[in-house]
């Protein structure tokens, strides 16, 4: 029996070898490939479809109806245990959390001058468009619909073209659960067509997007040029992870690699710039290489696997090109740096040392399993370097000093700062970025403000007003 945090009832993490081997869906078992509108499965108006592939094998899974201006591990390639214990578990917790908010969203009574009664109401925004990425298809689906629905909105959601299957399956569950028609609508398709239509549609009142900064800018522009719909954006990151000499070095190595390699590095929160104090730098690099070489890459459906393929050929080639740039610019390749096997899109967990701030590895979002380790001398220096980026999504600090943990986390320009941990996300805690990492917040109570309009009602009290 597994608890919700992915451990057994006695708190011990599950032994992958003791778990039954999960069986992937057969193509014949995939029933939902059409658009889900008004609780019905609809064909696209233009009759077009597009294929979705298994990145672990390169084989086509099925064809999906493509919306126009009108299953997790198999579809995305992430290891089964990660899908089950993190993505699915996080989705359940998020739904339960926001279900608890549904009857607790309320306004305030305000004391004002003279003989007036004044109060506020929180009303639904209306129709909310949601455009989600391929790296966490199920979890991002739930992050978007849960706060929107608990505030009384309806949703039109576009899953990524690479990973539409889990969203469509959830559509079937939504109908089975008894949702009224039209509350949740799912329109698979491509960004320039279906995504652009959501961003510019005059009947959509708000759009929430998770993805690249470049596409986020296009969505905000389209929203402004249409009906000035409100926009929340959760975008890219070039996240600093700062390791001080007084930290628990083994813990820092473990957590920094969780940040760098989790989901094959395909995370906006990836620990893509690891700054290590010079007195422990060599030891940190040695331990990191030792740890990276133990990572098991292979079939995502095998419980022993902790490292799966990249999402598609384009991403695969981009990552390897970034690796080559690191070599050319003078960073030291400590391990990895090439594909794992001929079949599929696997890249070895890769570590570079002697990375400098001017290198592409240290400036551009890689979105792959590449850990870049930089050296620093002082706290003041590392804070300045950590903040020297257009991004500001997440950061981490490893130290045994409470004073340093507080001062450094306060100085870092990031929406989330983890201390002595990494990727510790909770449904109750807001998540979002500074600067070009986005606008607005998801999760927690803060997300509710993104899905409601505040109305002020002022009533003049006099003898003519009767009940």
UniProtKB/TrEMBL annotation:
Residue ranges of region Disordered?
1-20
Pfam families in the cross-refs? Aldedh (PF00171)
GO BP annotations listed: retinoic acid biosynthetic process
Quaternary form? Homotetramer.
Its recorded reaction(s) are: retinal + NAD(+) + H2O = retinoate + NADH + 2 H(+); all-trans-retinal + NAD(+) + H2O = all-trans-retinoate + NADH + 2 H(+); all-trans-13,14-dihydroretinal + NAD(+) + H2O = all-trans-13,14-dihydroretinoate + NADH + 2 H(+)
Instruction: Describe the family membership recorded for this protein in Swiss-Prot or TrEMBL.
Output: Belongs to the aldehyde dehydrogenase family.
The reply on keyword Oxidoreductase is yes
Question: Keyword set for this entry?
Answer: Cytoplasm, Lipid metabolism, NAD, Oxidoreductase
**Keyword Disulfide bond annotated:** no
Q: Name one GO molecular function term.
A: retinal dehydrogenase (NAD+) activity
Its pathway, per UniProt, is: Cofactor metabolism; retinol metabolism
InterPro entries named in the record: Ald_DH/histidinol_DH (IPR016161), Ald_DH_C (IPR016163), Ald_DH_CS_CYS (IPR016160), Ald_DH_CS_GLU (IPR029510), Ald_DH_N (IPR016162), Aldehyde_DH_dom (IPR015590)
Q: List where in the cell it is found.
A: Cytoplasm
- Among the entry's GO cellular component annotations, what is one? cytoplasm
- Which EC number(s) does the record attach to this protein? 1.2.1.36
Outline the extent of the Aldehyde dehydrogenase domain. 71-457
Q: In the record, which residues are listed under signal peptide? A: none
Coiled coil where?
A: none
Q: Which organism is it from?
A: Pygocentrus nattereri (Red-bellied piranha)
Role played? Catalyzes the NAD-dependent oxidation of aldehyde substrates, such as all-trans-retinal and all-trans-13,14-dihydroretinal, to their corresponding carboxylic acids, all-trans-retinoate and all-trans-13,14-dihydroretinoate, respectively. High specificity for all-trans-retinal as substrate, can also accept acetaldehyde as substrate in vitro but with lower affinity. Required for the biosynthesis of normal levels of retinoate in the embryonic ocular and nasal regions; a critical lipid in the embryonic development of the eye and the nasal region.
Instruction: Output compositional bias ranges, type Polar residues.
Output: 1-10
Q: Where is the active site?
A: 234
Name assigned to this protein: Retinaldehyde dehydrogenase 3
